[in-house]
């Protein structure tokens, strides 16, 4: 509509004036994905944030992603259009809790999912995303114990794929937890030809029903080359927009209408305009924490799937 067109034009002008780049996660609202210079999964966004030569990064996602961009690009200004967009899973572990866990297992290596606060990354040896968690854990010496925080579902997936016993933390994503086993079972029955793709953050019974366990970026890659014409998608519903763009001929069915991340939906066109206009809201990480978190993030960006 006319208002959106006006806002989009304004965003274009301001982007040029600020030398800004807009990054958006695959779970963002459709119109935000469409206006972004790059949209992708957590790993892809981290790589983009570390490589861009823009002065300003407008991060359309949740807080841990913007913090990660600030750590990887310390000279750039990182803005979030809506700074209250957090990730409940990331908030399920604090640096103090991790320090206590490490004290109990002093010889263990710590791998933390990128969905974590910067201070937790600073206490970790390696960071990972759902796209490279298996590769990161495989790269560690077999004789070392590994603490994996905060997502126990991703941790369980990594245990299964690597055959290693990990010490897990009881964190989880509420949005993925909402996707029910029975819903997926029913859809499988009514759509026997469909390929079921699930995110590793899903519960174990849902993952057991899936044909493919993939990060959101991997889902996009998978459907581009798949011969299937119908897919059941067990993750946050924002990805359906990107999947439909990737394969306009195919049918994508959300495993559950409840798979919505309210924090991801806080970004609006208005807020992106205000963000560029007023240079708000700047996300910074204290330099001592950033320096320590940077080491675990650098290791993550090096180990690509
Ligand atoms: P990916 O896009 O990296 O698969 O991450 C999923 C997620 O929950 C991000 O919050
Ligand atoms: Fe966090 Fe889950 Fe939302 Fe991702 S989908 S940002 S893990 S709450």
Automatic annotation (TrEMBL):
What are the EC numbers? 2.5.1.72
User: Catalysed reaction per UniProt?
Assistant: iminosuccinate + dihydroxyacetone phosphate = quinolinate + phosphate + 2 H2O + H(+)
SUPFAM superfamilies cross-referenced by the UniProt entry = NadA-like
The pathway it acts in is: Cofactor biosynthesis; NAD(+) biosynthesis; quinolinate from iminoaspartate: step 1/1
What biological-process GO terms show up in the record? 'de novo' NAD+ biosynthetic process from L-aspartate
The protein's required cofactor(s) are namely: [4Fe-4S] cluster
Any single Gene Ontology cellular-component annotation = cytoplasm
- Look up keyword 4Fe-4S and say if it applies: yes
Tagged with keyword Disulfide bond:
no
Q: How is the cofactor bound?
A: Binds 1 [4Fe-4S] cluster per subunit.
Subcellular location per the Swiss-Prot or TrEMBL entry: Cytoplasm
Provide the binding site for iminosuccinate: 25, 42, 113-115, 130, 199-201, 216
Q: Which residues bind [4Fe-4S] cluster?
A: 87, 173, 261
Can you tell which superkingdom this protein's organism belongs to? Answer: Bacteria
What keywords appear on the UniProt entry? 4Fe-4S, Cytoplasm, Iron, Iron-sulfur, Metal-binding, Pyridine nucleotide biosynthesis, Transferase
One of the record's GO molecular function terms: quinolinate synthetase A activity
InterPro entries hit by this protein: NadA, NadA_sf, Quinolinate_synth_type2
What is the purpose of this protein? Catalyzes the condensation of iminoaspartate with dihydroxyacetone phosphate to form quinolinate.
State the family it belongs to.
Belongs to the quinolinate synthase family. Type 2 subfamily.
- Identification of the protein by name: Quinolinate synthase
The species this protein was found in: Anaerobaca lacustris
Gene coding for it: nadA
